[in-house]
Amino acid sequence: MFVGSDTVNEFKSEDGAIHVIERRCKLDVDAPRLLKKIAGVDYVYFVQKNSLNSRERTLHIEAYNETFSNRVIINEHCCYTVHPENEDWTCFEQSASLDIKSFFGFESTVEKIAMKQYTSNIKKGKEIIEYYLRQLEEEGITF
């Protein structure tokens, strides 16, 4: 479950066409209490970078884990672009990778938890994106 985030870095071009924001996000992961105790954490942190280019009409979202990055590597990339044949449509591409190096003998459990979390977050992510798209439309930004 998403707990909160802090803005780490933000950039806006002079004309406002490019907006890049990087956040450090905090999650409460649905993991067994024993695993959290062994790992010594209650929350996990990841970094998310959103790059909006209004000129090219693209949004790129990159995310990677900070917590346990020496043991587990999670990378995700999402890209929203205008459909080449219909400018009223949006194309969405998503890729993710998970590499578990060593996790106190709980590699299989961690992999299952990560996949469960990722799958449940896909639906939540879609809802969040649709919410922000509606906000942009209300502000008159439709490109």
Q: How would you portray this structure in words?
A:
This protein has two helices and six strands; from the N terminus they run E-E-H-E-E-E-E-H. The chain starts with a strand and ends in a 5-residue tail after the last helix. The protein is α+β, with helices and mostly antiparallel strands. Strand 1 (2-12) and strand 2 (18-27) form a beta hairpin. Helices cover 27% and strands 43% of the residues. It has helices spanning 33-39, 107-138; strands spanning 2-12, 18-27, 44-53, 58-65, 72-82, 90-100.
The stretches of 5 or more residues where confidence is low (pLDDT under 50) are none
Strand content: 35-45%
How many whole angstroms does the radius of gyration measure? 17 Å
Order of helices and strands: EEHEEEEH
Output the number of helix runs.
2
Strand order of the largest sheet: 1-2-3-4-5-6
The overall average pLDDT, rounded, is 82
Q: Looking at the structure, what is the overall shape?
A: elongated
Structural class: alpha+beta
β-strand number:
6
What is the count of structural domains? 1
Helix fraction bin: 25-40%
